[in-house]
């Protein structure tokens, strides 16, 4: 019997874990597969860890991976993927926004020979107008900049064949934008669309800060365009100031007028100062990421190593 590993990152989801576990058991019963359910506890400060430990004791399908602190969603997913050794691996959120009822459909596609089955959120219920708009703008900007295509509405709810998971483990980058990484890996991929319901309980664990970091990771990982735009901006303002100098010289040499306008000078200094700081900031984003990469710190630390550990 083939084994399906399900990987679920969990950060303060005490109201969701049991419900999610039951739903997964119900769905997996209807399939012809055995399964392992990996809960990756991402340094929760509520009772999530205890709940996972209890489930682990009661049911051998459940395996807990406990990170030493909150490392973030993408790293928690990576930790799960490092340990999941089923014939296929499904990653999904533990808040029921990735409906377990879709699992049989993912498996069907896998049986049909696809090695990656990506899900695309058609809409998300109960999400604010602002979040929808910023997300849609973000994907438009990203796709115009990046050297890969990342579908709008792409989520981290996907099935991967073990072959793909093994290849994925060879990527050691620190700043992770997994949906971009998988998309760029190749293999036989397909997509299915779904409507993401509201969270079962609790609130989103993505603060605006985490969201912004994630968004910047996506852009800096797949595009140098911000740096190139800085260069073009610099060249353009250089050209404009050169024309201004010509204008000033012309007035000085060929007329008896003085060149008026301290306001123009103040404005242009402020304008250029603003551009310079922005460009420095952009360069800083890239350098910060280079710094994180060269340190080669471990991506995550586990509280304790699981017994079934296969690869590090
Ligand atoms: N999550 C995590 N670490 C974090 C933030 C979130 O493991 O630092 C988990 C969270 O428990 C959930 C999944 O990632 O299972 C998706 O998070 P959430 O539902 O808060 O994101 P949203 O659906 O609002 O984008
Ligand atoms: Mg969610």
TrEMBL record:
InterPro entries: Glyco_trans_2-like (IPR001173), Glycosyltransferase_2 (IPR050256), Nucleotide-diphossugar_trans (IPR029044). Residues 5-165 form the Glycosyltransferase 2-like domain. One of its GO terms (cellular component) is plasma membrane. It is found in: Membrane. Keywords: Glycosyltransferase, Membrane, Transferase, Transmembrane, Transmembrane helix. This is Dolichol-phosphate mannosyltransferase. The chain crosses the membrane at residues 229-250, 262-287. It comes from the Bacteria. Coiled coil: none annotated. It comes from Propionispira arboris. GO terms for molecular function: glycosyltransferase activity. PANTHER family: PROPHAGE BACTOPRENOL GLUCOSYL TRANSFERASE HOMOLOG, UNDECAPRENYL-PHOSPHATE 4-DEOXY-4-FORMAMIDO-L-ARABINOSE TRANSFERASE-RELATED.
